[in-house]
Amino acid sequence: MMREPDKMVAITKAVVEACRKPVTVKTRLGWDDSSKIIVELAERLQDVGIAALTVHGRTRCQMYKGSADWTLIGEIKNNPRMHIPIIGNGDITTPEGAREAFDRYGVDGIMVGRASFGHPWIFREIRHYLDTGTLMEPMTVEEKVALAKRHFALSLQYKGVNRGVYEMRRHLSCYFKGLPEFKATRMKLVTSMDPDEIMSLLDYVKDNWGGIQLPVEENVYGI
Ligand SMILES: Cc1cc2nc3c(=O)[nH]c(=O)nc-3n(C[C@H](O)[C@H](O)[C@H](O)COP(=O)(O)O)c2cc1C
Q: Parallel, antiparallel, or unpaired for β 86-89 and 24-30?
């Protein structure tokens, strides 16, 4: 769609007209470095009636390479014609990074993607930091195990065994980052197809590494 902005705007307009619910758009800066069209595109999408816009500060060609460029997200916010909420996205990995996104670029909201892998409590950490200016105590391994088990149980419940296990792998490979001598256990966690075995492995993690609380600066996010 980023190569055919006219079509993108036309499709968005048709969706807005066909829906009774608010329609939001999430997109990137443009197709490649020579076509970062987002500032003008944001106006056009607003003009056809979207309720909010999320922008990931990379181009499609970049995929996930380099770092997200938030300057154009700030430019959208500085455009006096824009009035819908703008949500910034890309490379937010810490509560401090979230604060900076609001302060420097004036966005109305942020989205966090990859940093939530194996770290789903990042949203609570960010909320706490924005509210109080202080960082939450890092989780102990015991707390992480309890959360991982609940997360896994919900994943199985919502997605069934196969998808539940596969989708949980990307989280399990990150939940316990930074723990010493963890590689072999991590490999088992992310290769087993047996939910009971994965649950038992999580108990094993608690028994062997429980009580460890990595210092906040070693809090490794999944990115
Ligand atoms: C596994 C995975 C799946 C994704 N699926 C979607 C998707 O369905 N729709 C979407 O708009 N973005 C999707 N994204 C992109 C993210 O929403 C986000 O824009 C991107 O990861 C950059 O944010 P981050 O640096 O916080 O991860 C996905 C990203 C990943 C890693």
A: unpaired
